[in-house]
């Protein structure tokens, strides 16, 4: 399968790329700063790198990245570090980027999208959880613009209902650097999912979902056991 990876220069994106390569997919990486990729990824025989942004003037580059692609998987999201998250722009730039991405997917007849989300994106299957209530409201209080952008990402993707987009939003809690790929998928407050997830687990879930399509048009919360 030929897969377009977005957000590939970040730690979760790197994991996505490596997991795709382990599964023998051809990986197209669309990135503003491809020099941030590790050398083994940049030089891999199954990797194609296209430099570009999601700004309107880079539309030709984004279009090129979609050529021949079977699915788009994305680790795009606002920064999570305390030094950057509070200063995220107020105009929901990542949600706007998704609007351009989805429009370009339609232009190239690419229908499958698996995107990173967080528990800030609510789901009808969620139940009340004191722990997640505290986590979500902590983000909303300390990094409101980042919170607003994540919510807008969910609205943008879900707003494609009836347009042919086959989407999954993989909502994550706090991400860790554990090497474990074990994942539980469920919903907030179901007494199954927890408050942390390894980035390796996130990547394994996304690449597995590419093959299984078990969560089509759903937004599960995934966590480590």
TrEMBL record:
It comes from Piloderma croceum (strain F 1598). One of its GO terms (molecular function) is oxidoreductase activity, acting on the CH-NH group of donors, NAD or NADP as acceptor. Residues 7-211 form the NAD(P)-binding domain. It holds the Pfam family NAD_binding_10. InterPro entries: NAD(P)-bd_dom, NAD(P)-bd_dom_sf, Polyketide_Oxido-like. The lineage of its organism: Eukaryota, Fungi, Dikarya, Basidiomycota, Agaricomycotina. This is NAD(P)-binding domain-containing protein. Belongs to the avfA family.
